[in-house]
Amino acid sequence: MNEIFRSTAGILLYILLAVLLIVIPLFLTVWNIVNSFLKKPKLDRVMSTITVLLGGVYYAIALSLLDLAGDWYEVITDLQLHYPISSEYWWMAWFLVPGIIGYFILLYFKPQKLPPLISVLSTASLILLNIVQMVFFIHISKNADIALLFFLCYHFNITLLSARVVCRHMKAQVALAKERKDKLEQHKGIAKFFDKIDTLSKYTIVVFVVFFILVAIIEIICVLMGQGLDAPIKAFTDTADWTFSQQIPPAPIDGHYLCTVAAGGHKKVVKPLRLGTRRGGTIVVNRQLCIANAFEEVIQEKFPKFHRWIRHEYDTHGYPLSRKITTPLRADLTYYLMKPLEWCFLAFLYLVDLRPEQRIGRQYAYVGEARE
């Protein structure tokens, strides 16, 4: 009896999860698409509000499934990912709040009930919100895997709902302007004024002017907070693992202390060249590491017994030493201490190998370019 109950409960749980994670998002998406083609959308405000709010909850859950563990400079496990946005710039997410507020203002209020400045600010901030959310989706699409479907669904709905509410609002503004102009035809001066805002394109120009003013204000705030004009860009680029990332994350200590140096030292000192693979994991590769590994490869080919002794000694003493290299400064110091050995290895390669640079260059499988 207990087994039947457990199996039934398990089936019900799977059905519930399917409804919550698949049926509801799909239903809301289809509803919003159909509403986009109807002259009188059905339950537009209710369904749009549910989509934005419930979708936001789903989005947060999907992000948590990615197991985000830290900024790009922190050591994480192979199953974890670094933050898609640098924690130094998380505060800029508050700039998206006006876009969310603007969306609900345009959704719930008719144009004739809105002051002109509120109308234009709501539209411009909503456009800014959509640009950022599209960029963020492209940014996380590299490593989102299955969760990418939830992200795609939500971003699509936000774009669709935003486009619909802005289009409806701008058309209503034009109709309102025409109505006012008709009532004021006897006043030629006022009629000429309304002629200037009589078309949708001219209203659009006003919106985009305000949009660029908002962007300028954001940039000024970033400067005043000491972040610089490039802060919105660095929020995406000062990361690792994602589409716009430009930082090289430190590799976990794996017993090879030169790998630790290449990963943990300051880039201006250890000069990372690219990413590579070692024992199935991704590591940061610099020239010192490649030279050392090429030297070991030659020794293994020409003097196998001597290589076994060197490898034994290196594994015995190298790993304990690697445990001490816990800061970029210590990694820099180790890099400099290894320089004499690096020169000896390089001289040996040029003495015994016909194509030393080719041997050095092919060390570790290529993964991607490291950025300075």
Describe the structure.
By secondary structure, the protein is mainly α. It has 15 helices and five strands. The strands form two sheets. The chain has a three-stranded antiparallel sheet. A hairpin with a 2-residue loop joins strand 3 and strand 4. Helix 1 packs across helix 2 and helix 11 crosses helix 14. The protein is elongated. The protein starts with a helix and ends with a strand. The C terminus is likely disordered.
Q: What would you call the structural class?
A: mainly alpha
N-to-C span: 65 Å
Number of strands: 5
The dominant shape is elongated
Mean residue pLDDT: 76
Please state how the strands of the largest beta sheet are arranged side by side: 4-3-5
Helix count? 15
Q: What percent of the residues sit in helical stretches (DSSP H or I)?
A: 55-70%
Strand content: 5-15%
Order of helices and strands: HHEEHHHHHHHHEEHHHHHE
Q: What is the CA-based Rg, rounded?
A: 30 Å
What's the main sheet like? 3 strands, antiparallel
Would you identify the regions where 5 or more consecutive residues have pLDDT less than 50?
197-201, 368-372
Keywords for this entry:
372 residues, 3-stranded antiparallel β-sheet, 15 helices, disordered C terminus
Short description:
Helix content is 66%, strand content 6%. It is mainly α and 372 residues long.
